[in-house]
Design the sequence.
């Protein structure tokens, strides 16, 4: 993977944004290796993402940012630029089920995941040795109705301590406290084992079996205070039939869950996801 | 397509059903060209479907049916046997949108659909010439809140008069009266333009856009008194992104709608669908 | 659909292309509603497509084109700009099988296809009444080994006479003469009923059955002198099993064929396909 | 998972097979939990698979087998019956790439794989610690052109010593010697990273990129003496575009490879795959 800067912008739409930004980049000698635009015509809002070859940009990131402010103000941009050489730090939250955790740790270990796993926090101790094989610190923080406030206070401290910028609920079976959802808006990614908005909440495969659907799915989304209702990043489905028991659905579903979570997380880590209201723009490749 | 009889059975599960049925067929010389079984372990219920080469069955359908009664009683079977040479008669209900109607008429015309289209009934007159090119009688019965009872009384008379055994709501934008849903239980097939149970009711693509899903779908299901809640026969989805407007979703969705409806209808016409509670067993090929 | 101009560019890659083009558009007040870029790093080649709101562009198309030449020369661009209000003229070539022809005619009739069907040319007379229902001129030009040169000479005359800019081989079972392939480079679109490069040539479903594959597919591609080897625009597949006969494969395959052809053709008609060597860049939405 | 016996039969087709087999099972009190049949009409050959609840079968497996011989001879059956409580022993062959090995080991560890991994044999030492974390013996047998005969002689000895019944080439980058292919006919499963028969041999993603296909795939097949030409068990594909580099294709392809291999292997381990000539019948659930 080349060393790139990722410039992400959203602002009210008007004529001249692309020209101004492209000219600014060109003036610094920047080579654009990927560019994506989107105009939300209904809301007159504009979204843009560029990948710029780091080595090509005269003056580097600081010079870029300093000069860009004026432009950004003129167009009322929300923007940030990130450096692929400084991968986002990830805290993985897990419980007992290992498929999502194992999948993410393996991708990270194989340098497929463009982020840095800094710790695993789990409400059960079962997956400790797996995390430790990958040489990732593992913290067992049990959560019971009584200890929940204390447990999440500890959890947040750990997240802060590790400097984690992304929290991934890799089949973590606990609901985060509302305040934590607020504090980490746009930073907590969950995998829900249904094709949302169908089958919100507990035991979605049982719900799916009850309704007799012919496809089951998984949804990767940002966590908000409302259960399973945050902005959707990625979804996929798999075909089932009457012949599949709920156990079969769980088995087949695991493959969809881990793939959808890995895809969604990669999009987030590469700054490909722009949240807009309760929806996302995903500049996928 | 070979001339076959389709024997469809459901009954409480017990040892010996397959053996007894297979022996009965073998005793009459019947060649089985397709056989499917399913046991619903949770409900201890058994489902079976056989296709038997018509020419191979000594004594034909009547002899078969007569002798089979005893066996059927012993195992408390619900059963029926149908003749592929007597395709089910289909009434197509349409409105203004043509994609599902055009698709079904074309498949029927090309002898792909194992049924016989006997009439088109529509609440607008727009699709008359299309039906007439296919030499299918077209009846325009407008439906307004005031005329609804009268309109559906006429509609039912037409269905009876044509001897239609299946009613297909090919994007027919009216809700059938509850009594009609009851009278034709398991005989009315609808296509809903969402992946049910998500986005029940009106304007599902608007609902999908609102929620920001990454896949849109279509559901072919039997109509019951509860809107969009009947047994599901077939579903499929297609990938969308932020770049797709609601008009794009409608355009892409039409392809899924017509394909899912055609598949679901074929399953029904070939007696591949067994309704069980609010779910279906579909012995698909 | 809005009235837009589509500006399509390919040229050697260098810094400043996007800025220059975007600035040129902005200077004329042009509102960009869709923009796509791609850099082929291996070949150092750049591809770009813009949709510009027609009403927003001061001076219209002629002013744009005149001024753009200088810019285009500076960057050694191959470029063209097309007007969505002047849809490309399409000649549909067919034989006996109707599914692709019926599908395209229906989409065109429903104003879904962003092109204008000007004639149907077929080597059999079977589909005449279908074309005529859509009020499209139908020409029956039989092709035999003896009459082939004469037949294709007539065919080309018709294509010229109708001013067709795109030829669609909608399951036309004849191989075009090499000279015609050359004359219409990048203008003839074929649908091949396999997932190319597997199963080139005749009877691909038989070949697929012979090899025992678990998926069958269809490929929409530009026609070149080498059979089934031209640049691929679009492909898709569908799952099959041992239970599917060759007739089943044909039936299931028809749905994939017509969908893939319709998608590929739409991409071409909207100037979304850029041919580069024997490959394509498809700026799909 | 219930304890079941799996009865797998293939024989010339004739009337009465199903009846005789079902009667035989019923006479021993056997509860059938899954049954699948297939008739290959072109070759007049019949295939059948039953899952029988172990506890329900009077006299157990030995009594069944003894009595069944007479029936099997009468119908000229090839048949075997296996016991889900005696999972097949698996030797995993690997090289340097870990994704397939990691995936299979994890599934096995989580008791998802209905088999028993007895050893890993690799031509590089890189994956030793991964195998050892799962407490699976790891053998490093380097293969060079000079040492190939000796290396495979050692390899076969290990396979024998561990009593492995299935060899899985989990991205093992060596071609097995012809004699070993023969000795283990129907027991060696490979994953090839293309949608066969496209892109046989080395570097299929490079071949795919060269041809400009719009989907890439993976194929799980039995190994025969002819490279990448054995009976196909399972295949799948994933969509790509011009925007994907060969590295992207490798990354995306890994997910398809491991999923297709895991599915194909599960089918084999549960005796769901019947080889017939160079094709397979797969009684999938």
Sequence:
């Amino acid at each position: 993977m080349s060393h790139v800067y990722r410039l992400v912008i959203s602002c009210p739409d008007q004529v001249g944004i692309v020209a101004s930004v492209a000219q600014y980049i060109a003036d610094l000698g920047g080579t654009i290796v990927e560019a994506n635009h989107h105009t939300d015509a209904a809301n007159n809002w504009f979204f843009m993402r560029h990948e710029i070859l780091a080595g090509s940009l005269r003056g580097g990131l600081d010079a870029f940012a300093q000069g860009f402010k004026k432009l950004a103000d003129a167009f009322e941009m929300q923007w940030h630029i990130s450096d692929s050489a400084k991968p986002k730090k990830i805290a993985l939250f897990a419980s007992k089920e290992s498929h999502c955790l194992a999948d993410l740790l393996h991708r990270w270990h194989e340098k497929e995941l463009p982020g840095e796993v800094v710790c695993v926090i789990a409400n059960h101790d079962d997956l400790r040795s797996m995390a430790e094989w990958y040489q990732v610190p593992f913290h067992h923080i049990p959560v019971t109705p009584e200890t929940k406030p204390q447990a999440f206070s500890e959890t947040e401290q750990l997240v802060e301590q590790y400097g984690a910028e992304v929290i991934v609920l890799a089949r973590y079976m606990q609901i985060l406290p509302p305040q934590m959802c607020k504090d980490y808006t746009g930073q907590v990614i969950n995998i829900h084992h249904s094709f949302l908005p169908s089958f919100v909440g507990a035991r979605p495969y049982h719900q799916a079996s009850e309704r007799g659907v012919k496809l089951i799915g998984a949804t990767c989304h940002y966590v908000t205070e409302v259960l399973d209702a945050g902005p959707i990043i990625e979804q996929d489905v798999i075909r089932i039939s009457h012949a599949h028991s709920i156990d079969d659905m769980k088995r087949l579903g695991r493959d969809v869950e881990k793939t959808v979570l890995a895809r969604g997380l990669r999009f987030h880590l590469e700054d490909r996801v722009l949240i807009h209201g309760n929806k996302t723009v995903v500049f996928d490749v």
Remarks:
- Residues 246-269 of chain A form the longest helix (24 residues).
- Chain A has eight helices and 13 strands.
